[in-house]
Every structure is written in structure tokens, then in C-alpha cells.
Amino acid sequence: MYPEEIVRPMREELTRLGIQEARTAEEVDQILGDKKGTALVVVNSVCGCAAGNARPAVAMALQDATVKPEKMLTVFAGNDKDATTRARSYFTGFRPSSPSIAILRDGEVVKMLERHQIEGRDARELAGELSKAFAEYCEVASN
Predict the structure, then answer these.
(1) Element housing 109 (H / E)
(2) pLDDT along the chain (143 residues), means of 10
């Protein structure tokens, strides 16, 4: 576990965007348990690619989006083990990855960005990919 004083600003980078944070498995299930609609799930991390690419990309995508997921959730890998494990249980067919960004529609992963797809990419490029996924999958769910 990382000291909370180090992790807090990284948590807040996402929660101030309106993304709900879950610290327990039960909180994850409260948010994702009803599988109807769309959900954005961000597995946050202390690594450099989370700071330089993943969190900024999520912020840009949400800022630019005309349509957004109905539910937005973040868990912190390395600190909130049970919540992270439970969130990942919704990612059927994907190995654990930190950071990672998933979009679910009606409980199914329709878009997944794993660490290897985040590392070394520009945050703006990732944001564009997320924005396109929001438009494709979230708009369909809201019709």
C-alpha cells in the first residue's frame, strides 16, 4: 500500500471530474451491479503512465464529450485491493492491468484500454479514442 498522502492527489484528479470512487467491493457493486446503461471504469495507479497519460486522457475526453457514460467509477490499484479486484471482475476476458480504462454497456466491456495500450501514447491521442468510444457506445445506450 502507498501512503494516503501520496495517493490522495491522484485520487482527486479523477473524483473532481465527477467520477465516483469506490474503496470497497460493495461500493463497486453498488455502482456497477445494475448492468443497464453505460459505465466508465478507471483503474487508477501511481505509475507514470497513469499520471502522464491515463488520468489526463480521461479528463480531456470527459471535457470534450457531448455524450458521456451514465456511471463513472474509479478504483485505486495498490491501495483499495478488494475494490480493484471487484472492478476487474466486471472485465471478463481481460487480465489485470494498472492503469486501465474500461467502458461497459449493459455489463459488457465494449472498450478496454490496458496498460500496454496506454504506455508511451500521448494523452490527447488516448482522449480522442475515449471520446469516439463515448460517442459510439454511450449514445447507442441512451437511445
Answers:
(1) strand 108-113
(2) 92 97 98 95 93 95 94 96 98 95 97 96 96 90 51
For the chain, the helix, strand and coil percentages under 3-state DSSP, each to the nearest 5: 50, 20, 30
**Fold held by 4-142:** Glutaredoxin (3.40.30)
Look up the pTM and report it: 0.94
Catalytic residue, candidates 17, 31, 46, 47: 47
**Residue 47 annotated in active site:** yes
List 32, 40, 49, 54, catalytic entry:
49
